[in-house]
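re: ur question from the group chat, yeah i did fold both. here u go
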Amino acid sequence: MTNTPTITTDRLILRKPAARDVDTVVAFFLSDRAAHVGGPYTLGKAWRQFAAEVGHWDLLGFGMWAVTTKESDQIIGLIGPWCPADWPETEIGWLMFEGSEGKGYAFEAAQAAVRHAYEVLGWETAVSYIDQDNKRSIALAERLGAVYDPEAPQPKPDQPCLIYRHPRPEPDGSVEAYA
């Protein structure tokens, strides 16, 4: 297992999700905002999805970070490495919560997550699985330099999605500092 550190960027802190985040994350999964990730969920499924986020860390030593601003420990999204046992490839996933869009937070955090996956976790490849109707996520993937890969294997063949492949970042170290 890898001991994934907290990552600090110019404006954000990416940390392991904690019990204090459950209400915000569950509220996201219960809302219409979760439509692009299979929601809205029932309360039980929303709670179990948050438990899976936390459990991913315990099982693999890494996972999607709780994204917060440096000014507040309130979670504004989940972004980072994600690879359940049945995923065909290693993924960089992202979920941004209401009020956090349009500020560049997702780009800043996802850029740090991609760099971490390649440079620290040693991933050879990273993709993002995106609902075909999720225009914001497609735009983010493309802004990150990811390229649509129609030949990549689907994570859920009965629910096809778009798969964007992330390039290996340049080793200039300009994205984040590790705590």
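okk and heres the other one u asked abt
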Amino acid sequence: MANLKPSLFLIIAMVVSSMEFNHSVATEHVVGDSFGWAVPQNAGFYAMWSLNHTFIIDDTLIFNFTDGFHNVAEVTKEAYDTCNTQNLILIQTTSPTRFTINNVDNHYYICTVGLHCKSFLKLAIRVSVPNNSSAMLSH
């Protein structure tokens, strides 16, 4: 029985530490889930998708789309709001495209093909600070 207590304590400690660790583990988010990155039928589709996810530093956004029909560009908020396809931060034209979140700013993505952005093929995400990363911010 004496050998059981240290083992039980070790198991409990591992479970607790893994629960805390999961809050800061980077996640891969497939944008639009099974729908992917395409012109949505619902104007609020990507806004709702974004609201249903939590994004932190080191998470990755994966954009799946049909090459030649869509692309994905990271843009400023102003370009996102107006669907301005000039002065892009970064553009990717092959699928799947991956963007790794490297700061806590909001991030904005659009499709620059035709009128796709004006047809709501655009995504804005808000990046959260993980619960245990206050030490990261002080550096």
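fwiw on the second one: The chain has four helices and nine strands. The first strand starts at residue 28 and ends at 30. idk if thats what u expected
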